[in-house]
Amino acid sequence: METEPVRGAGPVVGADGVARCPWGAGDPVNLAYHDTEWGLRVHGEAAHLERLTLEAFQSGLSWLTILNKREHFRAAFAGFDADAVAAFGPADVERLMADAGIVRNRRKVDAAIANARATVALRDSGGLEAFIWSFRPEPGPAPRTTADVPTTSPESLALSKALKKAGFAHVGPTTMHALMEAIGLVDDHLEGCHRRGVAG
């Protein structure tokens, strides 16, 4: 789950009469992301690298912070073109560390570059998208409240280990579960949320 305002809360009905997961029922940016993107499948290498990178940068921060900086991230990381980011050198790292439009964390910046290089290397074995989707679990029951939404799963742990083995960094099991939620490998929209059932 991207953010969690109240543990154990059920869907929240907004002023528009629509029921949503609690984290998507407040701030307009979160609401738009919840209603139009979270849980929907994405396609292509760049889209998967973007989501993986943003989830890694989010670790320890609010998801709203990342969403508000998303366009800056896209510009700073060459639209998440893996070849371009893989070619980044020390000067690019210093440029990124001076860019107030993104989250300036050297370990995460270094990880983003390492992950682009690992993404390029994965092309020989089917590519990043197929690799991530090979860890898709069987659909589970709809969570009724936020207390029912897991933060990790056996599949996110397995994906984390496999990505680390392939040279990726900042891809822990909690971060990978958030990625799996975001791109529709799992459907963690709550029972009663109007977006329940859109995953995959």
Could you give a short description of this structure?
The chain is built from ten helices and two strands. It has helices at 28-36, 45-58, 63-68, 70-76, 82-86, 90-97, 106-122, 128-133, 154-165, 173-182, and strands at residues 12-13, 19-20. The radius of gyration is 17 Å and the shape is globular.
Task: List the SSEs and their pairings.
Blueprint: E1 12-13, E2 19-20, H1 28-36, H2 45-58, H3 63-68, H4 70-76, H5 82-86, H6 90-97, H7 106-122, H8 128-133, H9 154-165, H10 173-182
Antiparallel strand pairs: 1-2
Key features of this structure:
single chain; 200 residues; mainly alpha; two-stranded antiparallel sheet; 47% helix; 2% strand; disordered N terminus
Can you walk me through this structure?
The protein is built from ten helices and two strands, in the order E-E-H-H-H-H-H-H-H-H-H-H. Strands 1-2 form a two-stranded antiparallel ribbon. By secondary structure, it is mainly alpha-helical. It comes from Nocardioides renjunii. This is DNA-3-methyladenine glycosylase I. One of its GO terms (molecular function) is DNA-3-methyladenine glycosylase activity. Its EC number is 3.2.2.20.
